[in-house]
Each structure stands twice: as C-alpha cells, then as structure tokens.
Amino acid sequence: MDCCGGTDEHEDDCTEVTVKEGIDAKTVEAAKALESENYSAGFSTEIETEYSPKGLSEDTIRFISAKKEEPEWLLEWRLAAYRRWLTMEEPTWAKVRYDPIDYQEYYYYAAPKSGAKYESIDDVPKEILETYEKLGIPLREAEVLLGVEGAAETAATAREAPRVAVDAVFDSVSVATTFRKELEKAGVIFMSISEAVREYPELVKKYLGTVVPQSDNYFATLNSAVFSDGTFVYVPKGVRCPMELSTYFRMNAENTGQFERTLIVCDEGAYVSYLEGCTAPMRDENQLHAAVVELVALDDAEIKYSTVQNWWPGDEDGKGGIYNFVTKRGDCRGPRSKISWTQVETGSAVTWKYPSCILRGDDSVGEFYSIAVTNGRQQADTGTKMIHLGKRTKSRIISKGISAGKSDNTYRGLVSINKRAEKARNFTQCDSLLIGGRCGAHTVPYVENRRADAQLEHEATTTKLSEDQLFYARQRGLGEEQAVALLVNGFVREVLQELPMEFAVEAQKLLEVSLEGSVG
Amino acid sequence: MLKIENLTATVGEAEEAKQIINGLTLEVPAGEVHAIMGPNGAGKSTLSYVLTGRSGYEVTGGSATLNGDDILEMDPEERAAKGMFLSFQYPVEIPGVPVMTFVRTAMNSQRKLRGEDEISAPDFIKKSREIAKQLKLDAEMLKRPVNVGFSGGEKKRLEIYQMMMLEPRFLILDETDSGLDIDALKTVAEGVNAMRSPERGMLVITHYQRLLDYIKPDKVHVLAAGRIVKTGGPDLAHRLEAEGYDGVLGEAV
Ligand SMILES: Nc1ncnc2c1ncn2[C@@H]1O[C@H](COP(=O)(O)OP(=O)(O)O)[C@@H](O)[C@H]1O
Ligand SMILES: [Mg+2]
C-alpha cells in the first residue's frame, strides 16, 4: 500500500472564474463562443513570448533570477534547492500513473515579450487583456480595476457585488494587480511575489520556505529552484482585509511549466479570504504545473483559501492535459489561529495535491473542504494532512469525490496527533460518488495518534449515482444531464457552502461542464 | 386523452426480461378519473413506469398516446413536459437538494422544453406558499432536501405538492394512500380533487376502497396478470372490498 509519508505534499489549483457580473456576462459569452468541446478555457493566445533556454540547469535558474532582478540571497536559495533536487527521486506512492516526465523538455520561464511587469494596466498587451476577458476575468472592468477608487465604490455598490482584487499571472509573470491602492490604505500588501522580493525583501525572507521547506518534497524542491511568479499577501496586525483577494493563473506558452509560488501571511488577529483560479489552453502535450503555496497565520489570525482548479484535463483518450503537482500547506503558528482550505478540483490529467495544516498554536483550527471530480481518463490523488501539535487543536475534513468515465479518484489523508496535542479533535468525512461502472474511488485515511484523550471521528461512504434518483428527477422534467448535475450538486452541497458566493456559482457550473456526457 | 392499446412490456435486462404487461387496453378521457385496483404484483407500478418512461421497462408491443401523441418514444422529461406526472409509490430521497430548488428546476426545465418563459422567483414562492398551506405542509419542510428524513405520510404529501406546483395534464397516483392516516388522506384527496378539471385525466392506483371515498372515480378497472380484466363503476371497488379479488375475478375469467 502506498502512503503519504511524513513530508510529501502537494497541490494546486486553477479555473475559469467569473469574478463579477455585468461585464462578465459578455466575456463569459465570448468564452463560451470559443468553447471547444466542453473546455471553454481551451484557447491559446497569440502573443510574442520570451523564453528561458529550454531545459533545466544552473544557467536556467540564473536566467530566471536575472530576469526578475533578484537579490543574491534568493539566487543562492534557488541554486541550493536545485542542487538538492538533483539528488531526489520523483515520488511514486500516489495512485496516479503517467509517462515519465522529461524535465529537460520544458521551458522554465515564459513571459510576454513586451516587458515583465506593466507600469499601468494600459501597458498590458491587449492580447493578454483579451485572454482574461474571454476567461471572464475582468482585469479592465471599466475603471474599477484600474485603481480609480471612486469608480470601484460606485460600481461595486451599484451591483451589490463583493469586490475582488485580482492578481493575474500569465505564464511566468504577473501582468496586473488590481485594487492595489485601496489595499495599501488598509495596510494590506498584495502583489506578485517578484515585486515583493524587491519591495519587501525582509518580509519575504522571513517567511519564504518556512512552511514548505526547500527540501520538502521533489516537486516543492523543484519549485523552489525555478518558481516563476505568484502572489504575496501580508495582512498586518488586527486588519480584516477589506475585500477578497484572488489570483488567476493562466498557462499559455507551449511546453512550459508553471511554477508559481504563493505566500500569504496573516499577522496577529488579521483575516483574509483568498481565491485562486487557473486555466490552460488545450494542447496535445502534457504541461507541468508544480506550485507551492505557504500560509502563515499568527495569533488569532484567520486565512480562508479557496481554489477552483480547471486546468485542461486532456481529451477522452487521455492525450494532453496538465500534470498538477502542488504543495500547499498552512501553518497555524499562533494560538487560536485558523486556516481553512476549500478546493474544487475539476481539471488536470493528473492531480497530486494535499493542502494541509500544521496546527502548532494551542487552540488552533484547521479545515479542509474538498470537491474532486474526475471524468474521462483523469486521475486525482488528493486529500489533506492535519498535523496536531498544539493543545486542544481541532480539525475538520470534508471530502467529496466524484468519479465518472474511466477515471480514478483517490482521497488520501493523514490525521496526526502529536504527544503534546492534548485533547485534540478531528472529524473526517469522506464521501465518494460513482457515476457509471468504469471508474474508481479509493479512500486512504491514515491516523497517527499519540494521545489517549484525542477525539477522532471518521465517516466514509461510497454511493453510486442511483437510477431511482435519476428517474425521479427526469419524471419531474429535468433532462438527464441536468438531473445528474442536480444530484451531484446535492452531493457536494456541504462543501459548496464553504465557498464565497460568486465562486460557488461558478464552481457549480464547472461541475456541470465537467460531468457532461458522463451518463447515458 | 390517455389511450393505451394492447400494450405489452417487459421488465429487466436482456435474457432475464420478464413480461409483466400483457396486452393491456385502457382509455381515460379528459376530465375523468379512473381507478386501477389489483392484487400485489399485478403490474400496477410497472404500468406507471412504462407510461412515464423509466429505463429497464421495455415496451414490446401496442401503443400509448396522450392527446394523440405517441408518448412511448419520448424521454421521461419530454413526457413530463407534455404533462405526465407520476406520484411515486416510493418517493425517492435526494440528499442535499432542497425541495424548492428541485421543484423550481423541474418547473423551469418543463417550461423550457415547451418553449415557455421561466417562472419568476416571487411568482414561484407565492405559488409554493399557497399550495403548502392547502396541503398543511410546513414551510420549513420545503427548505429541506427532497424526502430526506420525511415520514411516509410527509413523502406522499410532498408528491401531491409537486403535482400541484407542476400542474400536469395527466396524473398517475401510485398508492398515494398507503402510509397516510385519515387526516392526511383527506388533505391529500382535497388537493387531488382541486386538480380535477375538464382538461385533466387521472389514473388512481390503489389497493383500498378507502381512498375512492374521497377521490370519486368515474370508472374502476381491475388489473391482474398485466391486463385489465374487469371494468366497472365506483361500486366495483366496493365489491372488491367485500368479496376480494378472487371472488370478483372468479366470475371475470
Ligand atoms: N425491476 C424488476 N425486475 C424484475 N421484476 C420486476 C421488476 N420490477 C417489478 N418486477 C416484477 O413485476 C411484477 C409486477 O410488479 P409491480 O408492477 O410492482 O406490481 P404492483 O405494483 O401491481 O404490486 C412483480 O412480479 C414484480 O416482482
Ligand atoms: Mg405497486
């Protein structure tokens, strides 16, 4: 039996997400019009791209670091990771199978040629803006996102829609970050990690690699060597971030890996809700995505991290698609802190992802809510680890796996109660839903308990989408696919409720699209 | 309205398929309520599934039309959109889907299939309130997942709620009376009677005369071994109650 050993972890995310109404209706329509089969994000953008030399070497890393005008310490940090990586082996314990990855066949840096970070949104090439618009990500939503603050207020209140600040990453670089000024007023730092390295080197240095160490696992180490861009968030003491923050990742260039790195730090008593979405064009080759996300919650802080992952899953025969190997981990460093992961995973050919919580502070709380959908020939091995170190720490795991087609869906989880973690509690619920008879669902829950006073509860169910339910719904007038979507929505409702409203709506649509053609 | 001629149908997969409906002929004109009574295993529920298009129930001969349209070729949802409604003998639980969401999705889907506009949220809620009140259904119940944790009687009342919401043209009630106490039975019957109209037909499947005291049928049919073996007026139900199927059927053969 394979096992998620002590230090391996991964994960990642992505999706097409509509952030706002209004403009989006149009952009979503546009995206729909481009729809290729089911995957509406599968178009690519014609834009001049600058690449690093193909393959991986110290030179590649120096190239990336130089492009980003990084300080010496970071270059050294990358090189140390690279040297370490050369001695490591790709993990094989997950229940996923794929052809060996030739790491020399990828580009580790790709950026739109016209310049890395744009001074203002007006400098962002129109092709990129159009791409995001097609995806329903309104970078240029009137003046709102241009940082014209009055406009933001009026537009948002007019729609009564919550505002969302967006950091958009196109291949290896962040192309635009919105609402920066307003966030600065609140003291919130929200920018690409490359910029943060330049502008807030001390903060970055203090936290980078402290949750997911360089040596953590094969893919995290690779990421540490070559990470391209990603988001940095710092919420100062006692500040409740005034809006949702989000990042959109878009892989566009061919044969390019995406290695973003996200670091979110919530200082004492602070709160932030962060959303992540990703998409990629349809390509015959497998694209590689190996991200690292680190969350740090200090005393009484709370971080809510939501992901909708919709990378291209490959075609029905399993050709193409994203390899998604991501390490996501949150550190509840201070007492009474809380970290909550919510993920909706519908894309990627292979998913290897275990967003986890280290419950270090006494009375800290970790949560993991997951919906993982596999169809066609997708393979997902995902779950979480809750590491209870502090006293009276609590964790809650709700996992909903849906398998259709010829796919394989595995929940893999670890609940570890350390010696010092008196009266720790965990509740785990893993439900699997099977659609059709050719898919697989597997549940692999591990428990390591060193305390007699721990309270651990585990529930698991596996059900088949029932013919009775399907007929009942169709007798009332629902079409077959609509009936499936409704039943599936019911199945995942507990988790959908954890998502911010507009994300939940999008996730619901995504589920529907992902399961198209799964019955009949 | 509903016209079934010499219908034969099997249940089950390929080699194991069993013929359950054996040349059944029946006509329910618009505006009429017909009762079907018959012993256990006679094929009553099977008939209701065949008419509503459940998979696994295969028509091997004969015809069934609703207002002249051949329904047997249609998908279940098309039949629903044409106005066929089945109140299930065993209503199905749908975890995580609130009743209101379910019914509204169904209603709009039917409307779409018929090329009509969606119902507005306020109109839907208003209608739902009125009907719930009529059926003495607690509004809180309509926010709960469909049939999950409902008592037998609540499930049956919820079937009638759905029926009244969707306003079908042809109603099949499959043992709606089973599991109901007398008060609930009266409430349900009132709901059903309120649906009676010159454009509507109904097929009421039941074991007991009791329901027919409240929903007065125009005709009573006896279904046995997959065929209608006897047809009569409301008094036939009384005779069945008094003499049992054997007594009545003995003379029919
Ligand atoms: N899915 C099925 N597979 C095989 N036999 C079935 C199936 N459903 C019903 N039957 C059989 O068909 C006959 C009629 O059943 P049913 O229509 O439920 O009877 P009723 O509703 O009149 O009591 C019974 O003998 C029953 O066992
Ligand atoms: Mg029956």
From TrEMBL, chain A:
- Every copy of the SUF system FeS cluster assembly SufBD core domain together lies at 249-491
Q: Name the Pfam families for this protein.
A: SUFBD_core, SufBD_N
A Gene Ontology annotation in the biological process aspect, one of them, is: iron-sulfur cluster assembly
Family the entry assigns:
Belongs to the iron-sulfur cluster assembly SufBD family.
Please give the InterPro entries that the UniProt record associates with this protein: Fe-S_cluster_assembly_SufBD, SUF_FeS_clus_asmbl_SufB, SUF_FeS_clus_asmbl_SufBD_core, SUF_FeS_clus_asmbl_SufBD_sf, SufBD_N
Instruction: Please state what the protein is called.
Output: Cysteine desulfurase activator complex subunit SufB
SUF system FeS cluster assembly SufBD N-terminal domain span: 184-241
From TrEMBL, chain B:
Which InterPro entries does UniProt cross-reference here? AAA+_ATPase, ABC_transporter-like_ATP-bd, FeS-cluster_ATPase_SufC, P-loop_NTPase
Instruction: Report whether ATP-binding shows up as a keyword of the record.
Output: yes
Q: Which UniProt keywords apply?
A: ATP-binding, Nucleotide-binding
Pfam families per record: ABC_tran (PF00005)
Where is the ABC transporter domain positioned along the sequence? 2-250
Provide the GO MF annotations for this entry: ATP binding; ATP hydrolysis activity
Q: Which Gene3D superfamilies match?
A: P-loop containing nucleotide triphosphate hydrolases
UniProt feature coiled coil, ranges: none
Q: Which family does it belong to?
A: Belongs to the ABC transporter superfamily. Ycf16 family.
Q: What is this protein called?
A: FeS assembly ATPase SufC
Q: Which species does the entry assign this protein to?
A: Hyphomonas jannaschiana VP2
